[in-house]
Design goal:
Layout: H1 8-25, H2 32-44, H3 55-58, H4 65-79, H5 85-114, H6 120-132, H7 136-140, H8 145-164, H9 179-198, H10 202-215, H11 221-236, H12 238-246, H13 252-262, H14 276-283, H15 288-302, H16 307-321, H17 334-346, H18 350-356, H19 359-378, H20 384-394, E1 398-404, E2 410-411, E3 414-415, E4 423-429, H21 432-442, E5 445-450, E6 463-468, H22 472-475, H23 482-485, E7 490-495
Parallel strand pairs: 1-4, 1-5
Antiparallel strand pairs: 2-3, 5-7, 6-7
Length: about 500
Amino acid sequence: MPTFRLSLKQALCLSFTFHLLAAWYSVGYYNHDEQQVLEFTSWWLGKADSSLFDWQFHREIRSFAMPLFYGGIAKCFSFFFVQNPFIWAFAYRLVGSLIGFLSAFLVICSLKRWFPEKKEWELQLISNFILLAWFVPWLHSRTNAENLCSSFFLFGLVSLTQYQGSLFSPLRVSEGVEKRKLGYLCLAALFLGVAFWIRFQAGILVFSLGCWLLLNKKMPFFHLVLLTLLTAFVSGSVLFIDYLGYGHWTFSPANFVKVNFFEDALGLYGKRPLWSYVFWGIRSYPPLSLLGVAFFGFGMLRFWKTLWVWLVFPFFLLHSLISWKELRFLFPIFPEALLLSGLGFLSLGEKAKAFFLGERIKRITFVLTLFGLLFTSLKPASSMVFFYQYVYEHYPKRFEYVAVGGDPYVFLGMKQYFYSPEVLLPHLTENWEKTQSEFLNQKSQIHVFFEKMPRSSELNEKCRLEYSTIPKWLLRFNYGHWVERSRNWSLYRCDFG
């Protein structure tokens, strides 16, 4: 067997380190949905005007589970007089990272029960797929619903494993009913229901799990009925979660289905071809992503009767058939997909495995993985958050500005409150050259925001650059006028007094 390999302890320590790094450095949002959760939290905390939110808030299609969770964390910080939203956001990323790492750790601990026939080095290899895929720490640090939904669903699976001993072993009816086992059954129902609270698409995973348990007779029928009823009860209690959030009785899962499928809100976001997810997966980080998708496909074909395929395939197929596609929609099945990739690799022929487990290939793979982990964990998800941080730190009470071409505190039609100072006074214009004459006559001082670096002819000599998302030293190397073509949020201070 290979001589160069990470021990489980080393893999866990490495993964945990990158989870902490991602929580600290991966600031901002990968998708606007993450920021939307924070804005809902701001409204619940009394810091936002909901009349300036987008239609998703007013149609009440989002569960309030995550905003309440984040709002509770914010209240804990407020109790100790910590009101800085950037500290709150770090706490949200850190909590998500720790929960995600814990879910991965519990899955690793369950591998021996799930695959008792596998050798130690084979279980270690599957563990490496789950712990050290280049995107895992970054994924767990995201403040979106898909991230926490995935973790709580895995908690439910692990609880079911504790109930049965192994989800893959034959049912042993003679053992009888034990209180401890029923306790794990109730715990599993709780976690599966919470996963549904967070992201309604978890219902697909829960339904697939129930069908697999029923058809494969993995638990007594009465216990399966009990699990179903308890999970349905916990899932339905999202009604009370929404009441605490929205302030009146509403049922967001029903609103979600009505708006998206019966009123065709999905069509608002364009259409993507059927193969988009496969294409995005392959191009994400070649060659590792290409190999990962290939191993995943092989694992799907080779283990099509197993629970993992029953979980992944329906979820993947349904989301592929829907016209609106975003990669985050598949985040809930990424852990199961990584596990299938590991199983697919182990099912390769001996010559193929010998090639990939050769010393040179392993070292190259490790270096590529390490580089990917460093890049995703240390790179900000969005550099725009640094603009918000600069404004908040320098003008926390009141910020008056002219926005040229677009307001930085409005994104996709939704007002951004979470990172904003207490008072915002925007003046919107499409042409700063004409607007600045008004301030010249008033002999006042004003800040001017540009989405792109302005031409020198647009600026008065009394305006100086105060902040730029592109480092100021880099702006000196404007060969070919690449700066003007870049999306560079810049803030100028104009003193006309």
